[in-house]
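Sync notes, pocket subgroup
Present: LS, DG
LS reminded everyone that the earlier model was apo-only. Rerun requested with FE3-S4 cluster included. Inputs:
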Amino acid sequence: MKLTDHEQKMLDGTHGQAKQKAMDLLVRYGEALGAERLVDTRNVCGTAGGSTPFLRDFAAKFGGYDAVFSEFNLDSSETVENPRAEVFTCQVIQGLDCDHWQVLGATPQAVAHHKESERHEAELGIQLTNTCAPYLLGNVPVKGEHCAWMESSAVIYCNSVLGARTNTEGRESTGAAMLTGKIPYWGYHIEENRRGTHLVELASDPGDIMDWGLLGYYLGDVVQDEIPVVTGVHAAPTLPKLKHFGAAAASSGGVELYHIVGTTPEASTLDQAFGGRSPRERFVYGPAERRAAYEKLNSTARGADVDYVMLGCPHYTIDQIWEACCLLEGKRIHENTSLWIFTPRAIRELADKNGFTDIIRAAGGWLMSDTCSAVGQHLPKGCKVVATDSAKQAHYLPPIMGVQARFGSTRDCIEAAIRGRWEGALT
Ligand code: F3S
């Protein structure tokens, strides 16, 4: 791999041990990928969290969070002192909302460890955004900007909707990027790798976020980790719709970049989306495909009872919280059902100010932040059936948590929370 003088100096240790380890990691990683060089990045979304039981024990045994960062972010069994982040770095979603630990069923010890780990992250200069949707908090990289992001739903949004450039990075590569401002130049950083491969023609415009989730779920299934180009979208989709769409496509498949002709920034025309090439395969998405995706997402559900409604995957926007409030106001959640809504902390504070949190609490639900059920692995006690408007959550919760899942619209989910029963259907 060709290195600049500055990169070579970091690798030689001129800029300290931690940067030397970080560069060593990036060079090994880049060479394994066939990258010829590194590229500058000033936008990293990763994790240096150390509050899981395993990492907590590791920190206690090997000398604190510097040891955790060295081992798990820099791939170094030698503990080095952690310097502050060189470039803007956001923390992705974590495992706990410390303001609602009792609702989540966590322990005071877990909260204490979590806060200690967060203090260490803050000392490193990491922004404690704690979300899978950093673009909701003003981290909106511009078209062509090179980023180093983790979290599949964030990566697909960054590449496709914003036209910025990132591969799906991991804890190690984002740790190294945060200290050096570098990431291997390969994959979706390179212009010619961003062209569409598969054509997906829609019979009609998708409607609400459920519809966009179904389309995304279908699309990931048929193209896997290729680059779909969608045609037939006439009504410009909103941020929440594309958020749910991308998260679904990155769950049933490994889609990291898509194009919607006439909507996304690298697809003004079909020709631009494919870079002048022909699609390798062509699919048509119509009512039968939509129904098949719906049935697949509901395939684990047995009876009609619902004991948990989970909203906020990916983390809800403020307008989604408002929509939920409009459906909930003046109503009461069924005594056998819990409603948890997840959003970034900064948006929760806005919801507090707007009175939305009070509406949700008055109905018996909770508005939480910093985590979600799949990542934190917290469910209401005795939960067997979860209902959600997120295809991603319906995809992951059954295998991760052993529950049944119902997938439907936001309205279907709120009504299920109120009745304690699922009455949603595909119309
Ligand atoms: Fe975010 Fe958790 Fe969903 S990380 S995308 S809310 S599974």
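DG: The longest strand covers residues 338-343.
LS: The mean pLDDT is 97.
Action: DG to write up.
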